[in-house]
Amino acid sequence: MSVPVAWRDRAVSPQDVIARLPPVATAFVHGACATPTPLLDALVERTDLDRVELWHLHLGGPLAFAAPRYADRIRSVSLFTSPGLRDAIAEGRADFVPIFLSDIPALFTSGQVRLDAALVQVSPPDAHGNCSLGTSVDAARAATSTARLILAEINERMPRTHGDTIVPFQRIDAFCVTDRPLAEHTPDPQTPVTAAIGEHVAALVDDGATLQLGIGAIPDAVLARLRNKLELGLHTEMFSDGVVDLVRNGVITNRRKKTYVGRSVTSFVHGSRVVFDFIDDNPQVEFLPCDLTNDPAHIRKNDAVTAINSALAVDVTGQVCADSIGSRIYSGIGGQLDFLRGAALSRGGKPILALPSTAKDGAISRIVRELAPGSGVVTTRGHVHWVVTEYGAVNLHGATLRQRRERLASIAHPDFRAELLRP
Predict the structure, then answer these.
(1) Taking the CA atoms of the chain, what radius of gyration do you get in angstroms?
(2) Does 198 lie in the same domain as 174?
(3) How far is residue 399's CA from residue 388's CA, in Å, rounded to a whole number?
(4) Environment class of residue 95 by beta-carbon count within 10 Å: exposed (0-12), middle (13-18) or buried (19+)?
(5) Same domain? 196 vs 54
(6) I need a labelling partner for 44 at 20 to 30 A (CA). Which of 25, 84, 134, 346 fits?
(7) Residues 17 and 157 in one domain
(8) Is 53 annotated as catalytic?
(9) Angle at the Cα of 91 (from 85 to 95), degrees rounded to 5?
(10) Segment 97-109, tens digit of pLDDT
């Protein structure tokens, strides 16, 4: 199927695109760098909405709909929340769903959540009449496959990505055209703490390992210290700028992987223009839905899977809180347990949790006797293996509760070790 040469003539304003959404509707919103901000801005301008539910993962850019004055008309449902929605969730103006990233697409494909529309940001159609989901496939693949309407922002600057990213132009019901920068996440500056954590984690990465890692100062610090490694692979739910240098310098080759040999596998990216340019029309980067990238049965097929994830707090038995501060929702379950379990099942795999030993400028230990009331246990103590802070790395797998306490205390900040060891 080809695309009409004058396809741009069919473009309308963001307001006219959003006018297609029924006043009572359930809609998916494309996330991270692909957040369709013009459509969300147009949504809040509508005064005839009765109740619109927006189902989404992490959203980037300004989120006007999260303001209290829209709460009676627009309800956010976070499957992994953004900083701009934490207050709304805490105040009861928005909802949060605790769910594994690998389970999210089935919410839509099974009909458990019936989508009236998918609000997405895509690339311009190619000569074959296909747009691309660009920087985020994750659950957007399932949403665009099942939603009754596809309402799109076609952004001239959205990278065209390879893999399961296609949205046929003829499938789009209404669209606006933009030429604007994508929402970016610039790398966080390194500190002595993140640098030390990076050193400890990098020491655990073997030549030939297949990496999974997220975004932030710690993953960036790890990546910066892998330049002497050989034949690494990448199978991850997401990556950012730090991966690009390792690919270009021949550190990440993907030659030793058992699946998608020669290609870096991801579900979405979240970074700066550096990573956007890298993935644009790059057949060596395979974008797949998150029910595939995060399936432990698929993850384990690669050898030496090294999964590097973060935590907000770890108790002395190894229970991990990663989605809340007490009962206040901070992020989401995401893919942490998917990959920690997949790595544990991989031959030679290493599940790793990395975190600074303290918070609030050293006033609070992140390794605690007990998790704060209301804290969610994202990763159970049975799933935890390696835990890393700036003070070292310890392996809890197969360790007794007494041994776990001793090992975790050894990598806690010295100011808190005595309290952690107290009977």
Answers:
(1) 22
(2) no
(3) 16
(4) middle
(5) no
(6) 134
(7) yes
(8) no
(9) 55
(10) 999 999 999 999 9
HSE of 319 in the Cβ direction (CA atoms, 13 Å)? 11
- Contacts of 73-77 with C-beta under 8 Å, sequence gap 24+, read 73/49, 74/43, 74/44, 74/49, 75/51, 77/53
Inter-residue contact 178 to 274 (CB < 8 Å) = no
| Set 45, 153, 237, 419: catalytic member | 237
- State whether 157 and 216 are in the same domain: no
CB 131 within 8 A of CB 177: no
Taking CA atoms, 386 is separated from 28, 239, 253, 320, 419, in Å, by 36, 21, 25, 12, 22
* 3-class secondary-structure state, position 321: strand
Q: Look at residue 183 and tell me if it is in a domain.
A: no
Residue 276 belongs to what H/E stretch?
A: helix 273-279
CATH of the domain at 57: 3.40.1080.10
Per-residue model confidence as pLDDT tens digits over 109-167: 999 999 999 999 999 999 999 999 999 999 999 999 999 999 999 999 999 999 999 99
d(CA 223, CA 208): 15
Nearest CA among 214, 39, 413 for reference residue 223: 214
Look up the domain containing 380 and give its range: 192-421
Residue 187: pLDDT band with limits 50, 70, 90:
confident
- Give me the number of domains the chain comprises: 2
